[in-house]
């Protein structure tokens, strides 16, 4: 199992008696000490000063951990802001750091910045400048103190959203008064798979081989069932520290696969929190020496894929009589099934096969407590006559800005023709 934040295998030094006036020992001083010891022969134990060292291949002394853990707060008002944006693939996260003169509480206090879009597949080389607009702030769990993570979206120098900026369109939808009045809630279940670094094979799997069949791994415990729990737990705590609305985590059906849940979040906040949580997960797996993949079907065959099930409700759905509102929303979703599928993640056709707790990508369906449907409604929602629906179609690599805003648009702003509505209602009645 990977070790989080483990120091590199370099020289490690412990001094049994601390001194507030002692200066750091340099590599030159350490070499001199070793030379003197060799000349004098074996040294006697000293109660005042003793050095214990573990030798490594490169004969260096590791001081990185101490520097990385430095708390700058007592010494300067300046902070480090890590600007984060989505790269050209629409799935990759990029970031770079800058110094800000003082702590900030709102993204409007931060300056815009730019980056080389030709290096991220987002701009041509002859006109490569892309502008970052700060949109959301989170506490930085890696640097601590007043340092922050900044979720940004990207624009041309003329102020137009670049094609991969899906947040801008989502913000327009969530700014619509009809949507605002319905206070849309989202609970997003992000599944992911951990891979061994060199072979790109799931964590805990024998290289070139397979573990036992699925069954004991889901929410399982034990060295032969749970692979990567330290990463999941580190991510959980880091998200809580950052201020991300993470609500839980669990081991998934396929070994080496995990899930965490974010929400309930309102409107555009859901996308900001998912992207921030993905960035933190990328950084943790980087430190652990494990590869993170959001591929919706990382292993072909009789293994579960990875989704990003999205739970959704509006004010009207949560009030008395809400179940009828949910049914109307499902009807609208059925009529725009193709539009949603095309926006729900690359490679999703490899996952939505009608097997492994999925519905077929080509067929829209819904049911109560049925995880083999496109849309699932919980037993409690049926019993209470109000609640939420779960869209089980989004892939693990979906863009949360796209999925959340599309759900709001289809259920709150889009109106089907009467003929289409009647035909869809008839089909859904037969389906149920």
TrEMBL record:
Residue ranges annotated for the GS beta-grasp domain, each copy included: 79-159
Pfam families: Gln-synt_C, Gln-synt_N
Main localization of the protein described in the UniProt heading: plastid
Domain GS catalytic, first and last residues per copy: 163-432
Keywords assigned: ATP-binding, Chloroplast, Ligase, Nucleotide-binding, Plastid, Transit peptide
EC number: 6.3.1.2
Catalytic activity from the UniProt record: L-glutamate + NH4(+) + ATP = L-glutamine + ADP + phosphate + H(+)
SUPFAM superfamilies recorded: Glutamine synthetase, N-terminal domain, Glutamine synthetase/guanido kinase
Subcellular localization(s) per the UniProt record: Plastid, Chloroplast
SMART domains: Gln-synt_C
Matches recorded under PROSITE patterns: GLNA_1 (PS00180), GLNA_ATP (PS00181), GS_BETA_GRASP (PS51986), GS_CATALYTIC (PS51987)
Keyword Ligase: yes
Enzyme class name: ligase
Subunit relationships: Homooctamer.
Family: Belongs to the glutamine synthetase family.
Protein name: Glutamine synthetase
UniProt source species: Prunus mume
Lineage: Eukaryota, Viridiplantae, Streptophyta, Embryophyta, Tracheophyta
UniProt gene name: LOC103322866
């Amino acid at each position: 199992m990977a070790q989080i934040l483990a120091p590199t295998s370099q020289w490690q030094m412990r001094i049994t008696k601390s001194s507030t006036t002692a200066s750091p020992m340099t590599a030159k001083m350490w070499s001199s000490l070793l030379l003197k010891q060799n000349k004098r022969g074996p040294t006697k134990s000293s109660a005042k000063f003793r050095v214990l060292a573990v030798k490594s291949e490169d004969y260096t002394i590791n001081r990185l951990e101490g520097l990385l853990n430095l708390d700058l707060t007592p010494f300067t008002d300046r902070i480090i802001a890590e600007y984060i944006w989505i790269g050209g693939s629409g799935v990759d996260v990029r970031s770079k750091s800058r110094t800000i003169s003082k702590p900030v509480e709102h993204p409007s206090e931060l300056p815009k910045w730019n980056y080389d879009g030709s290096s991220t597949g987002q701009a041509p080389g002859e006109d490569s400048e892309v502008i970052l607009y700060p949109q959301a702030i989170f506490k930085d769990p890696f640097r601590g103190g007043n340092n922050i993570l900044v979720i940004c979206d990207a624009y041309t120098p003329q102020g137009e959203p670049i094609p991969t900026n899906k947040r801008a369109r989502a913000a327009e939808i969530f700014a619509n008064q009809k949507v605002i009045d319905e206070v849309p809630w989202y609970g997003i279940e992000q599944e992911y798979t951990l891979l061994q670094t060199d072979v790109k094979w799931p964590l805990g799997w024998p290289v070139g081989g397979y573990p036992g069949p699925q069954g004991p791994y889901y929410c399982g415990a034990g060295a032969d069932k749970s692979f990567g729990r330290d990463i999941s737990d580190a991510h959980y705590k880091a998200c809580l520290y950052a201020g991300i609305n993470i609500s839980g985590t669990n081991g998934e059906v396929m070994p080496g696969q995990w899930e965490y849940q974010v929400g309930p979040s309102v409107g555009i906040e859901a996308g900001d929190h998912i992207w921030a949580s993905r960035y933190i997960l990328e950084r943790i797996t980087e430190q652990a020496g494990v590869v993170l993949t959001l591929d919706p079907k990382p292993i072909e065959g009789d293994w579960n894929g990875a989704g990003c099930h999205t739970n959704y409700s509006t004010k009207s759905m949560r009030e008395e009589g809400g179940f009828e509102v949910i049914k109307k929303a499902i009807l609208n979703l059925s009529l725009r099934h193709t539009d949603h599928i095309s926006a729900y993640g690359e490679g999703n056709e490899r996952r939505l096969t009608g097997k492994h707790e999925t519905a077929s990508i080509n067929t829209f369906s819904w049911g109560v407590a049925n995880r083999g449907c496109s849309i699932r409604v919980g037993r409690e929602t049926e019993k209470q006559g109000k609640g939420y629906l779960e869209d089980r179609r989004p892939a693990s690599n979906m863009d949360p800005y796209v999925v959340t805003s599309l759900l709001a648009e289809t259920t709150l702003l889009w109106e089907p023709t009467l003929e289409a509505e009647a035909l869809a209602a008839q089909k859904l009645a037969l389906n149920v």
